[in-house]
Specification:
Oligomer: single chain
Mean pLDDT: 87
Number of strands: 12
Structural class: alpha/beta
Largest sheet: 10 strands, mixed
Number of helices: 10
Length: 277
Amino acid sequence: MLKDIVVHIPVERPAAPLIDCALSVATMFGAHLDGVVCTYQSINPAMSVGPTAAAFALPTEYNTDPQLAESRLDKFVAAAAQAGIPAGRGCVSDTPFLANRALAEISRLYDLAIVAQADSAQPTHDGALPEALLFGSGRPMLLVPYIHRGPLKTGRALICWDGSSQASRAVHDALPLLRRAQAVDVVSVNGSNSAAGESSAPALISHLARRGLSANLQHATAESSNIHNVILSLAADLGSDFLVMGGYGHSRLREIILGGVTRGMLESLTIPALISH
């Protein structure tokens, strides 16, 4: 069950849709919900000049408005109280890299972290936060598209399955949500009904059945560069309410290099997705 949830509330973008979604998830499971904001700081070149110059530049050091951040937290706490949800609040202030790392560390204590998808048309310091949470928290992440409005719907789920350890982790992390679904689909891109193997899509469906979850197998074919678009198109055709998928990537000199499908999903997502690494 999901009993302890954190929502990372954006400050530089609209926050109400994400808060509404997070409140709906907390209500579903009777969970405690903490809201966390971040006031991102720029790296101040005056710090290398001397303490006097640094003190002079301090008022302009913050890129994120601290008062706006506090206002977002106030609105979150008020909305949680109105919904009867036990809630807490927190704030992190640091440079973008260190702040996102701190937010990932905070998320390690929760059953689920809820975060907004980055909007490429409106670049902000929290644009890299989903990747930081995915690869730095060790916990599942519910990524909410910036176009999403209203509560999280759980009527129909679409599991993206390739037999990998990441996909397996995502399915198990998503079980509380999957148990609320009236329909579950499993898509195997470039797979087949007769696919052999201990972790094939038909094998997954058999294991889900033992948990009381009936699932339908869906097939799709796609070029490797277009897998994310094919999955999202299938989700639209099926009327899926949320996705379940593994997140792929590796580290190179402290930089997260995302896999092609993961990056495509994070950029093009149209419905909420529970993603695990």
